[in-house]
Design brief:
The chain is of the alpha+beta class. The chain has a single domain, classed as HIT-like (HIT family, subunit A), CATH 3.30.428. Helix content is 23%, strand content 22%. The chain contains 3 helices and 5 strands, in the order αβββαβαβ. Strands 1-2-3-5-4 form a 5-stranded antiparallel sheet, with helices on one face. A hairpin with a 7-residue loop joins strand 2 and strand 3. The longest helix has 17 residues. The chain starts with 5 loop residues before the first helix and ends in a 9-residue tail after the last strand. The chain binds adenosine monophosphate and zinc ion (ZN). The site of adenosine monophosphate has 12 residues, from loops. The site of adenosine monophosphate (AMP) has 12 residues, from loops.
Protein backbone atom coordinates (compact mmCIF):
# COMPACT_ATOMS: atom_id res chain seq x y z
CA UNK A 1 0.00 0.00 0.00
CA UNK A 2 1.53 3.28 -1.10
CA UNK A 3 0.45 6.33 0.83
CA UNK A 4 -2.25 8.28 -1.00
CA UNK A 5 -2.39 5.87 -3.96
CA UNK A 6 -5.92 5.79 -5.34
CA UNK A 7 -5.54 2.34 -6.92
CA UNK A 8 -4.18 0.85 -3.68
CA UNK A 9 -7.33 2.22 -2.06
CA UNK A 10 -9.46 0.61 -4.79
CA UNK A 11 -7.64 -2.70 -4.21
CA UNK A 12 -8.47 -2.42 -0.49
CA UNK A 13 -12.11 -1.53 -1.27
CA UNK A 14 -11.75 1.87 0.40
CA UNK A 15 -13.01 3.39 -2.86
CA UNK A 16 -15.97 1.84 -4.61
CA UNK A 17 -15.72 0.76 -8.25
CA UNK A 18 -17.58 -1.54 -10.59
CA UNK A 19 -15.48 -4.66 -10.09
CA UNK A 20 -15.32 -6.96 -13.11
CA UNK A 21 -12.83 -9.55 -11.80
CA UNK A 22 -10.95 -10.12 -8.59
CA UNK A 23 -8.64 -12.71 -7.09
CA UNK A 24 -5.99 -12.69 -4.39
CA UNK A 25 -3.48 -10.73 -6.48
CA UNK A 26 -5.42 -8.87 -9.18
CA UNK A 27 -8.48 -6.66 -9.42
CA UNK A 28 -10.21 -5.42 -12.57
CA UNK A 29 -12.76 -2.61 -12.58
CA UNK A 30 -14.54 -0.32 -15.02
CA UNK A 31 -12.75 2.90 -15.90
CA UNK A 32 -14.73 5.83 -14.54
CA UNK A 33 -14.15 7.81 -17.78
CA UNK A 34 -14.65 5.13 -20.43
CA UNK A 35 -12.94 5.82 -23.77
CA UNK A 36 -14.63 2.89 -25.51
CA UNK A 37 -17.75 0.71 -24.99
CA UNK A 38 -15.52 -1.73 -23.08
CA UNK A 39 -12.92 0.01 -20.89
CA UNK A 40 -11.68 -2.03 -17.97
CA UNK A 41 -8.58 -1.44 -15.84
CA UNK A 42 -6.52 -4.35 -14.51
CA UNK A 43 -4.20 -3.76 -11.59
CA UNK A 44 -1.98 -5.90 -9.40
CA UNK A 45 -3.12 -5.43 -5.80
CA UNK A 46 0.55 -5.00 -4.93
CA UNK A 47 1.70 -1.42 -5.49
CA UNK A 48 3.99 -1.17 -8.51
CA UNK A 49 4.43 2.45 -9.57
CA UNK A 50 5.15 2.17 -13.30
CA UNK A 51 6.32 -0.32 -15.94
CA UNK A 52 9.84 0.78 -15.00
CA UNK A 53 9.37 -0.76 -11.58
CA UNK A 54 8.41 -4.32 -12.52
CA UNK A 55 10.88 -7.03 -11.54
CA UNK A 56 11.57 -10.75 -11.93
CA UNK A 57 9.38 -11.35 -8.87
CA UNK A 58 6.38 -9.92 -10.76
CA UNK A 59 6.61 -12.16 -13.81
CA UNK A 60 3.98 -14.72 -12.81
CA UNK A 61 1.66 -12.06 -11.36
CA UNK A 62 1.72 -10.03 -14.57
CA UNK A 63 1.52 -13.12 -16.76
CA UNK A 64 -1.63 -14.09 -14.88
CA UNK A 65 -2.98 -10.57 -15.29
CA UNK A 66 -2.61 -10.85 -19.07
CA UNK A 67 -4.41 -14.21 -19.00
CA UNK A 68 -7.31 -12.54 -17.16
CA UNK A 69 -7.34 -9.68 -19.67
CA UNK A 70 -7.71 -12.22 -22.47
CA UNK A 71 -10.49 -14.06 -20.63
CA UNK A 72 -12.32 -10.80 -19.87
CA UNK A 73 -12.13 -9.77 -23.53
CA UNK A 74 -13.87 -13.09 -24.25
CA UNK A 75 -16.62 -12.61 -21.67
CA UNK A 76 -17.23 -9.09 -23.00
CA UNK A 77 -17.58 -10.32 -26.58
CA UNK A 78 -14.64 -8.43 -28.10
CA UNK A 79 -12.17 -11.29 -28.76
CA UNK A 80 -13.10 -11.63 -32.42
CA UNK A 81 -13.81 -7.97 -33.23
CA UNK A 82 -10.54 -7.02 -31.52
CA UNK A 83 -9.32 -4.95 -28.64
CA UNK A 84 -6.39 -2.94 -27.40
CA UNK A 85 -4.38 -3.39 -24.21
CA UNK A 86 -2.56 -0.24 -23.10
CA UNK A 87 -0.08 0.44 -20.33
CA UNK A 88 0.99 4.08 -20.11
CA UNK A 89 4.38 4.76 -18.54
CA UNK A 90 5.32 8.20 -17.26
CA UNK A 91 4.85 11.63 -18.77
CA UNK A 92 5.18 11.10 -22.52
CA UNK A 93 2.60 8.31 -22.45
CA UNK A 94 0.22 10.37 -20.30
CA UNK A 95 0.26 8.18 -17.19
CA UNK A 96 -2.07 9.80 -14.65
CA UNK A 97 -2.27 7.20 -11.90
CA UNK A 98 1.07 5.97 -10.62
CA UNK A 99 0.05 2.41 -9.79
CA UNK A 100 0.66 0.02 -12.68
CA UNK A 101 -2.52 -0.68 -14.65
CA UNK A 102 -3.47 -2.12 -18.01
CA UNK A 103 -6.40 -0.67 -19.95
CA UNK A 104 -8.55 -3.20 -21.83
CA UNK A 105 -10.33 -1.24 -24.57
CA UNK A 106 -12.78 -2.60 -27.12
CA UNK A 107 -16.14 -2.35 -28.80
CA UNK A 108 -15.10 0.19 -31.43
CA UNK A 109 -12.47 0.76 -34.09
CA UNK A 110 -9.18 2.28 -32.91
CA UNK A 111 -6.78 4.22 -35.06
CA UNK A 112 -3.07 3.52 -35.33
CA UNK A 113 -0.62 5.01 -34.54
CA UNK A 114 -2.04 6.26 -31.23
CA UNK A 115 -2.16 10.01 -30.70
P1 LIG B 1 -3.54 6.43 -17.09
O1 LIG B 1 -3.59 7.68 -17.91
O2 LIG B 1 -3.07 5.24 -17.86
O3 LIG B 1 -2.79 6.63 -15.78
O4 LIG B 1 -5.06 6.12 -16.77
C1 LIG B 1 -5.65 6.26 -15.52
C2 LIG B 1 -7.11 5.85 -15.69
O5 LIG B 1 -7.68 5.65 -14.41
C3 LIG B 1 -7.98 6.89 -16.41
O6 LIG B 1 -8.55 6.30 -17.57
C4 LIG B 1 -9.03 7.26 -15.37
O7 LIG B 1 -10.30 7.48 -15.94
C5 LIG B 1 -9.02 6.04 -14.46
N1 LIG B 1 -9.44 6.27 -13.08
C6 LIG B 1 -8.90 7.15 -12.21
N2 LIG B 1 -9.53 7.08 -11.01
C7 LIG B 1 -10.47 6.10 -11.14
C8 LIG B 1 -11.44 5.55 -10.26
N3 LIG B 1 -11.59 5.97 -8.99
N4 LIG B 1 -12.26 4.57 -10.74
C9 LIG B 1 -12.14 4.14 -12.02
N5 LIG B 1 -11.23 4.62 -12.89
C10 LIG B 1 -10.42 5.59 -12.47
ZN1 LIG C 1 -0.85 1.83 -5.37
Amino acid sequence: MAEGCIFCRIAKKEIETQVVYEDEHIIAFKDMKPRAPVHILFIPKKHITTMNDIGEEDVSLLGRMFLKIKETAGTHGISESGYRVVINCNKNAGQEVFHLHAHLLGGRLFSWPPG
